[in-house]
Structure prediction request, 135 residues.
Amino acid sequence: MLMDEDPKNTSRYQAGLEVRRSVLGDPHVDRAEAAASDFDGPFQQLITEAAWGTVWSRPGLSKRERSIVTLALLAALGHDEELAMHVRATANTGASRDEIREAFLHVAIYAGVPAANRAFKIAKEVFAQMDDAHG
Prediction:
């Protein structure tokens, strides 16, 4: 890449941005991009290229399947804010509430009941917000 070339013009960044928008929604991505500063801008570029442009763009799993895996991992690791964001994203990925419940049951067995308990609590709160927003 040339030194004066905008890193956001790379094909991997653009592919990642497209997938990120399709999963998280335009409003979320727009807020993240608007909030990016000189300090964290390179991090936003990294996650757009690596997470979304490389991993989420791969053909091996559907967005629904990736969403379920992501929810289980975030729950197991206790990443509450990211978990809530990805629960909201299921409206775009097609992961059902039944599938999310099953993923969290796996979390209880393989990562511990406290992690799953917290994940269920967060998901219930997010589902209530989503239901209120839709009527």
About this structure: The chain has a mean pLDDT of 94. The helical segments are 11-24, 26-35, 41-55, 63-77, 80-93, 97-110, 113-133.
